[in-house]
Design a protein that fits this description.
Blueprint lengths: L1 H22 L4 H38 L15 H10 L11 H19 L16 H9 L1 H12 L3 H32 L4 H6 L16 H16 L11 H4 L9 H26 L10 H22 L5 H30 L4
């Protein structure tokens, strides 16, 4: 624990020291670019590490739900199974269908993985430990989150496969539909905190030993959290909303014609997004790094991984819904509920503001 504290305290010192050192013989803009590149590289490596951790964790969680062990051969407790899978993927042949649109087919995996790491840059792990603290962080996240759906649609269209195209069109319908209630639920947290900055939103939930976390602001915060979680599952294409990749219906959908590293990039994007969505939920509704006794970064990880395990639990217990049920839930239930919640939040803030 002391080593982790030392590393955590050392990071900002090294950042400032590196800037001063580089500015001694480089222009200020060049020094800033180099330090920023190192930070970006660290975030990318952290995101890739999450892929290894979450794939192992999900196999273990689903295994326990299904009364089996999960990975237990490659390394102690099967922790090297993800490494073995990575080696296998590197040896796979990269196959492109003869009739595919080669450029669209090639660019789709690159476009799908980029927004995940860009969003990770604004997530505050602690008050002073984030890639960048944007004062419009929420707007930045909402803007980038729409790119993933476009990339998946590109993969379905560029493959020139009817099953891939069907999966891609399902993505267009599903993600556009669920981005609306997700954005409306995020607005409740923004209204309660009075800021678009993720750091300011987290700070607004401090004190009272967790009682000021927005999830406990019944009914508006609780409803916003529930709406966000349901919409997030749909945005992640995870069960019970894994319609775009319904392997029993459309042969893995938009990734049917992908192999090798291009398939791996879709896989990386899915699990990095998994971590990012849970981290945003922990930041907006569960107080982020706020908590007693334990280090702030540890509180953040406990909340994030707690939500991740709950999402995995859903996958292991819930059946896939039909397309019509999926769309009806978004437009007939979540959107009206989220809109009503915003009006209720505004009314409550207006009524309580003179008393503050």
């Amino acid at each position: 624990m002391r080593i982790v504290h030392f590393i955590y305290d050392l990071v900002p010192v090294l950042r400032e020291g590196a800037l001063r050192l580089l500015k001694g013989f480089l222009p200020s803009w060049a020094a800033t670019i180099i330090v920023s590149f190192v930070i970006i590289l660290a975030l990318v490596l952290f995101g890739v590490l999450q892929v290894f951790i979450l794939t192992w964790l999900e196999r273990k969680v689903i295994g326990r739900i299904q009364d089996r062990y999960g990975p237990n051969r490659a390394g102690p407790w099967g922790i090297l199974q993800a490494v073995a899978d990575t080696i296998k993927i590197f040896t796979k042949e990269d196959i492109v269908p003869a009739a595919a649109d080669r450029w669209v087919h090639l660019l789709a995996p690159m476009v799908v993985v980029l927004p995940c790491f860009l969003v990770m840059a604004v997530i505050p792990f602690t008050r002073d430990f984030a890639g960048v603290d944007l004062n419009i962080g929420i707007l930045y996240i909402v803007a980038l989150s729409s790119l993933g759906g476009i990339a998946i649609l590109m993969g379905g269209w560029g493959s020139n496969n009817k099953y891939s195209l069907l999966g891609g069109m399902r993505v267009a319908a599903q993600l556009i539909s669920y981005e609306i209630p997700m954005g409306l639920s995020i607005m409740v947290a923004v209204m309660l905190a009075g800021s678009l900055s993720l750091t300011k939103i987290t700070e607004a939930q401090g004190g009272w030993w967790g009682l000021r976390w927005f999830v406990f602001f019944f009914p508006v915060g609780t409803l916003a959290f529930i709406t966000y979680v349901i919409s997030a599952l749909a945005e992640l294409n995870r069960c019970p909303f894994d319609i775009p990749e319904a392997d029993s219906e459309i042969v893995a959908g938009y990734i049917t014609e992908y192999s090798g590293m291009k398939f791996a990039l879709f896989f990386v994007a899915e699990y990095v997004n998994f971590f990012v969505v849970a981290a945003i939920a922990a930041t907006l509704f569960l107080g982020g790094w706020q908590g007693p006794i334990l280090p702030p970064w540890l509180w953040f990880l406990i909340k994030t991984y707690g939500l991740i395990v709950v999402f995995m639990w859903f996958r292991g217990t819930l059946p896939r819904v039909r397309v019509d049920q999926l769309m009806a839930l978004a437009w007939k239930v979540l959107v009206p509920l989220a809109l009503a919640n915003i009006f209720l939040t505004g009314a409550g803030i207006s009524a309580l503001q003179p008393l503050v």
